[in-house]
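In this section we walk through a basic example: taking a raw amino acid sequence and producing a predicted 3D structure, encoded as discrete structure tokens. The instruction is simple. Fold the sequence below.
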Amino acid sequence: MKKLRLLFCLLAVVCMIASSSTFSAMPKGKIPIEIFSSRETPNQLEQDLIRRLEKTLEKSSKFRITNKNENRIVLTILLNEYIPSVVSTDVWASSTPIKTFSFIWLAKPSKTHGYVLWHDSNRFQTLDHLVNYILQQADTMVLEIKTYYPDIFS
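The resulting token sequence is shown next.
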């Protein structure tokens, strides 16, 4: 009976070690994120958003900005501001600018090509709302990698 208990305990330890090694390839500590524009030369909106994200992520306990070739999450951004045309006889007629975003989230292992996790596009009001949205999405991407793609960084 003691041998059976010992064998069961040994089996439990081996199972815990095996399951924890599944996440061992995920970066430890703060998770590295690389952020860049989809354009060769980012527009003013994209530059402002990247600057705000870098400041916010510097203060974050979960994420850090990286430009190194390491296991990381990559976010490519594309922001546009459209001013619809107005046809009116009213001299005070104007239109509200429409700001749109497009994000592509990738998991980028250091030794291979990136894997697309998610693409998202919509309208936004302010850059502050967009920064908060990106932080929520980053948490979701980390959870998704751990849950569905644990071996992606192996």
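Looking at the output, two observations stand out. Residues 81 and 99 are 4 Å apart (CA to CA). Residues 9-24 have pLDDT under 50 and may be disordered. In the next section we compare this with other chains.
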